[in-house]
Amino acid sequence: MHVHDSVTVVIPHYNAETLDECLASVFEHSDVGLQVLVVDDGDNGLVLQRCLQRFPAVQVLRNKRNVGFSESCNRGLQMAQTPYAILLNDDTRVTSGWLDPLIEAAESEPAVAACQPKLLSPAEEGLFDYSGGAGGYIDAFGFTFCRGRLFASVEHDEGQYDRAVPLFWACGSAIFLRLEAVRQVGLLDLDYFMHFEEIDLCWRLRLAGWRVAAVPASTVFHYGARSLPSDSFYKVYLNHRNNLVVLIKNLPASRLLWLLPVRLLLELVASLQYLLRGRLASTLAPPLGMLWLLSHPLALWRRRRSSRRLVIEEGDQRTDGVYSGSALLSYFLGGRRRSDELIVEAAE
Question: What's the alpha-carbon Rg for the chain, to the nearest Å?
Answer without folding.
Answer: 19
